[in-house]
Amino acid sequence: MTGRTFGDDLARGAELHPERVAVVTDDGQLSYEQLDQFASSVAAGLLHKGVEPGDRVAVMLPNGLGMAASILGVNRAGAAFVPLNPTIKREKLTGLLGRSDARILICDEQRAGVAREAVAEMPGAEVVDDVSALRAEGAPRTRSTLSSDLAAIVYTSGSTGAPKGVTLTHRNMTFVADSMIEYLEMDETERVMCVLPLSFGYGLYQLLTCVRAGATLILQAGLAFPGRVIQLLDEQTVTALPGVPTVFNVLLALRGLSDREFPQLRVLTNAGAALPAATITELRRVFPSARLYSMYGQTECQRVCYLPPSELDVRPTSVGVAIPGTRAWVETPDGGAAGPGVVGELMVLGDHVMQGYWNDPDATAARLRPGRWPWERILATGDLFRTDEEGFLYFVGRRDDIIKSGGEKVPPREVEEVLHRAPGVREAAVVGVPDRILGEAVCAHVALDPGHDQDSPALLRYCAQHLEDYMVPRSVVFHDELPRTENGKLDRRALTDPGS
């Protein structure tokens, strides 16, 4: 049944393997049958409150059983879920709720105060601060859902501007989930550890692909206790660990990690930001039995490309080829196809491409281009890429991140790769700062390994040995930790505008 929704997948799992564990958390676990009952009663409660097809239901909960059941329950009710980071502050919450015109906000008692303050400015909206109470209303009901119906509004991280609501149909979401399951070779035996928030697209799809494949999700609230994550890799016989560079760098810094063995761990995946080559090498050393997938994606389509693990030794800095069933190519400013080595904008075509930005036609028009056929939408990613002779994709930088210094264009990632290889450097980010002579000067922001002593002159000398003169940073700023967005991505805006 190719048109089935994630709610259908859950029901199917409950029928075929009711006792199989669906979700594991520190607070307990649910079988497929139990999760199906939980989601069904959430759906019944929403329908009892008058939720109609396409209505928006915001979910602001930490990773846990309630968050998983709420997402799937909203899906089953025929409404569109709007996942929100549970640490969101009132002013931002008010804006996002207003822009999405959410009917209901599901949260917990800890967040109820902030939620009610935000909802007070939205006549007709309602706060549900106990998903267990919502699940008690009425017998489970179902509602017919089309693959073209609105399934979710997922907001971008806002790392490069104000968050925008990405509108996704059931077809958009199930298509990309199927594609990911295919290239990751997932099946019902998979046990996926997720420390990423389900409010973040990368984390959200760990839940959705597990439910679709009939697999098990081991869900953690975050990375506050990295030692616990390593412990669970053993205890829960985890087979797949998705992460972003921050997650992997924190884990790799744990003392004694390289002395342990994790033979059951077969897959590591990275998205959200590019892994430095040095981190890739260390991950493969510490987890030799795991295949490492370097991936690239955007909220606007979730996943664009992946690098088959067999290609890591040949092209370690590539993010690979388009995911199954899609196309991705590099385009020059005049609309032509860019040849190997030529930098241009990455374009994406496939059923995973969003429908547009919610209530933002101007931003939608800037990112979605007409295709060959009337029904096609081409996503202009706004990111700069190049390809090699075999057509493999390489991320160069976001168009807005490119530093124009003294008439030269400096891709931050190229400088960051060198900095990551410098002794003692744990994290590095490069931005442009105003300069009277150069227009923009290259500035490096660096976080060092604990206990390592490094100074600016030594780092700049190292860069001068490995970079063209115009790429060498003019200054270095040291940090204990580089700033991150709520989703764990590097926050370049905070580096270029500390008051943002």
Which helices and strands occur, and which strands form pairs?
Elements: H1 6-16, E1 21-25, E2 28-31, H2 32-48, E3 56-59, H3 65-76, E4 80-83, H4 90-100, E5 104-106, H5 112-119, E6 126-128, H6 131-134, E7 150-155, E8 165-169, H7 170-184, E9 191-194, H8 201-213, E10 216-219, H9 226-235, E11 240-243, H10 245-252, E12 267-270, H11 277-286, E13 291-296, E14 305-307, E15 321-322, E16 327-331, E17 344-349, E18 356-357, H12 361-367, E19 368-370, E20 377-387, E21 393-398, E22 403-405, E23 408-410, H13 412-421, E24 425-435, E25 439-448, H14 456-466, E26 475-479, H15 492-496
Parallel strand pairs: 1-10, 3-4, 3-5, 5-6, 9-10, 11-12, 12-13, 25-26
Antiparallel strand pairs: 1-2, 7-8, 8-18, 13-14, 14-15, 16-17, 17-20, 19-20, 20-21, 22-23, 24-25
Helix pairs in contact: 1-2, 1-3, 1-8, 2-3, 4-5, 7-8, 10-11
